[in-house]
Amino acid sequence: MKALPSIDSTLPTDRHPERVWYTSYGSNMHRDRLAAYIKGGRPPGAAREYPGCRNPAMPTRSIPVELTGAMYFATESPVWGGGRAFYDPQASGRVLARAHLVTADQFADIAAQEMYRAPDIDLDLEEVLAQGRAVLGEGRYETLVCAGQVEGMAVLTFTAPWRMNDVRWVPPSAAYIRFLAAGLLSAGAWDLEAVASYVAACPGAAGHWSVQDITDLLTEGA
User: Fold this and answer.
1) How far lies 127's CA from each of 48, 90, 104, 200, in Å?
2) How far apart are CA 89 and CA 105, in angstroms?
3) Helices (H), the chain
4) Phi and psi based region of residue 186 (left: phi greater than 0; alpha: psi -120 to 50; beta: remaining)
5) Which of 22, 141, 166, 25 is nearest to 77 (CA)?
6) Measured between alpha carbons, how far is 126 from 47 in angstroms, rounded to an integer?
7) Segment 124-143, tens digit of pLDDT
8) How far apart are CA 58 and CA 195, in angstroms?
9) Please, are residues 209 and 200 in contact by the beta-carbon 8 Å criterion?
10) Strand order in 94-103's β-sheet?
11) Contact predicate 89/69, CB 8 Å
12) What is the bridge-based pairing of β-strands 84-88 and 70-74?
């Protein structure tokens, strides 16, 4: 298994970086799913076509990381059906994630597509890199979070402006769970049991998806 890089929680000093670690804790941990956001297209099981990034090059590297906080499922995804993954950096716990090394404009374009906006404008990252958080709007993924840095480059993700216990948890669909869990497994830092146990314990999935259910999704056709 791959060693897990540690995140330096110190905020980076470069406020206008060329490259950042786009850190996904949801279905974009899976590179085939991420490719739809970068190159454009519709991933299997999804109901939406994505325009892609202005720069269609795939990440030069992807590494497994663990964020401080909690991951939970809430709202209703029109793409997958069922709950979507969200990140509460203020909650206690750990979040298994995958950081993709992308350009700053690619991060802006991925975020725009998550926000249902056109991927055609750069993001001003100065506030999130200086404060660790920047709220761009009231939408589901319009809050940027910087968890620190790896190799001197910012670890960035996005989530909702609310806290985990402020919303109703919603069970995720099988298609969504499959991409999310398979993306985690392919990161190479956690085995099947660890991935299935982690996802099954997340609020929204807990009580609806068992460890065996998730294991079966990941081993179908194997």
Assistant:
1) 31, 18, 14, 34
2) 24
3) 31-39, 104-114, 126-131, 174-186, 192-201, 211-219
4) alpha
5) 141
6) 34
7) 999 999 999 999 888 789 99
8) 25
9) yes
10) 62-68, 94-103, 19-24, 153-159, 143-150, 133-135
11) yes
12) antiparallel
Question: What string of DSSP letters covers 36-63?
Answer: HHHH-B--TT-S--B---SS-PPPS-EE
Condensed to tens digits (0 to 9), the pLDDT of residues 69-91 reads: 999 999 998 888 899 999 999 99
The number of CA neighbours under 13 Å toward the Cβ of 140 is 17
- Tokens (6 digits) for 53: 């990034």
Q: Is the pTM of this model over 0.90?
A: yes
Helix (H) or strand (E) holding 206: none
The pLDDT tens digits of the residues spanning 166-208 come to 999 999 999 999 989 999 999 999 999 999 999 999 999 999 9
Residue with tokens 């065996």: 212
Give exposure, 156-172, as e/b (b: 16+ Cβ within 10 Å): bbbbbeeebeebebbeb
